[in-house]
Amino acid sequence: MTDERITYKNKNAESESDTTEERKTVIRIRDVRKSFGDNHVLNGFHMELHEGENLVVMGRSGSGKSVMIKCLVGLMAPDSGYIEVMGKEIATLNRQTLDELRSDIGFLFQGSALYDSMTVRENIEFPMRRHKEKLGAVSDTTTLVMEALENVGLGHTLDLMPAELSGGMQRRIALARTLILKPKIILYDEPTSGLDPITAKEIIELMRSIQIKYNTSSLIITHDVDCARVISERMILLVDGINYAEGTYAELSASTDPKVEAFFKK
Ligand SMILES: Nc1ncnc2c1ncn2[C@@H]1O[C@H](COP(=O)(O)OP(=O)(O)OP(=O)(O)O)[C@@H](O)[C@H]1O
User: Fold this and answer.
1) In the chain, which end has fewer C-beta atoms inside a 10 angstrom radius, N or C?
2) Which PANTHER family does the UniProt entry name for this protein (predicted)?
3) Residue with CA at minimum distance from ligand 1 atom 5
């Protein structure tokens, strides 16, 4: 089978060396394959995320984006291929090491997933309990919680319940909860889904300012072309289980390849 991947800029998509990139590679996925019976979801997917980078992965519904993320964080084992996060090969890690590694990865999933019965403060404190080793003994969590809340512009919501907040505010709180562990990598799964265009734009701006402030590396899974345009430094289009096309928004949106064009048609 011929390899029909389209790569702009870095022609050597499968380069083994970091020297071709100025920035350190924090996630490396090589030739990952995953099938469910006859459903071949990932067919040799490659991806690299570099330190401080905003990488957007776009794919149609059911193209395997969630499967890829699950393999990346060790929630699902690929059939074959290699996955490394911050220098550690996921397949070789025991539960404890995997847990430690996950504390350096922030997740912002679809729908925010705040605990309805907990206040904003309790929601944000929640991951601190789980990752005590990382944060050390914290006698007063208020300063840390307030710092995280102020970073998302919601310092006044400390004692409110999620039901008292708008969808956009809930998404911000979820981001504050992610930031409290000072993650090195943030995985965003559809960060703007279900939000009106103005709120979506605010969330995108917030993601950008957080990326600059914390120098996090961000992997953003989205269908939202506007989100990709504003936030991505580089994009990967996941088609037929492979990284079908790779490049900047400007490069990909100017492509005349029919499968690439399909992503940018309004
Ligand atoms: N645990 C599983 N068992 C069987 N099939 C699965 C499993 N998880 C995912 N799949 C299948 O893998 C394919 C890709 O699913 P995935 O959830 O990764 O898509 P997606 O790109 O994230 O879609 P969406 O954008 O709609 O969230 C689908 O056909 C799905 O049915």
Assistant:
1) C
2) PROTEIN TRIGALACTOSYLDIACYLGLYCEROL 3, CHLOROPLASTIC
3) 36
| Ligand 1 center–CA 205 separation, angstroms | 29
239 Cβ inside 6 Å of ligand 1:
no
* Amino acid in the structure at residue 37: G
The CA–CA distances, whole Å, from 183 to 21, 127, 176, 201, 254 equal 22, 12, 11, 23, 34
Q: Which tokens go with 156?
A: 């006044």
Rounded distance between C-alpha atoms, residue 38 and residue 105, angstroms: 32
Q: Please give the Cα distance from 56 to 253 (Å, whole number).
A: 13
Nearest protein CA to atom 30 of ligand 1, as residue: 62
Instruction: List, in order of start, the domains of the chain with CATH numbers.
Output: 1-8+22-104+184-202+216-266 (3.40.50.300), 107-182 (no CATH)
Cβ–ligand 1 contact at 222 (below 6 Å): no
Strand order of the sheet with strand 25-36? Answer: 39-50, 25-36, 80-85, 88-89
Over residues 60-95, the pLDDT tens digits come to 889 999 899 999 989 899 999 999 999 999 999 998
| Sequence-distant (≥ 6) Cβ neighbours of residue 70 within 8 angstroms | 76
- What's the 45 CA to ligand 1 centre distance in angstroms? 15
